[in-house]
Amino acid sequence: MSFRLFIIYFFCMIGIFSQTTENWNKKGINALSQKDFLTAVDSFKKTLKDKPNDAFANYNLACTYSLLLAQCEDIESEVHIYHLIQEAIKSKPSYQKKLHTDSDFFILRGKYHFQKLSGKSKREILTSITWFGPSPGAYGPMDQFQFKEDGSFIYHKLDMTESNPIGKLEFTGRYKWINDSKLEIQFYDPSPMKEGGKNKNLRVNYSDGKLEIQGFDHSFTDDNDRCSA
Where does each TPR repeat begin and end (predicted)? Predict the structure, then answer.
């Protein structure tokens, strides 16, 4: 084969490859719009098999998995969704801003790692999500914290002493931000915990996606155990 024919063949193959990628992406987005999630997954995966860095396919496969997750369908793990989003942003940074408003990700909006991928700081994430305790039974998380931007917080705790329906106790307080890994909280009266009859400042260790609060025998995360409740 002459050099000239090789060049023609080379560019023809590029054209065919690009067209195939475009066709799979188009098929995937059409399936996604029709809520045919399995076809959408298959189509975007075929694009990524030949073009792993394709921003469009990475982003929309993440969207598809998020919608399946909202239905409690089995998917390749939540971590895999974050990996797809990260790859999409790496190839096309404008996707990071889109995360703030894209309704396909509504089920992940209350997740620490999703908020982090959207560009928020740890301090911003603290007040953007609800922090849940463990779910030992059928009633969901036994307690939870919600931190507000004005420095206050609300703590809810299941009242297991009541019968049908289970009651919920509410306590309020304030918190003090120290740094990206530490803060302090103090409950107002009445308080769920006192030492020597007085409320005290409680130390909080804030690691990636987890709060460990002095006086509590469990940690708090973004997981509300929704699908198993």
Answer: 21-54
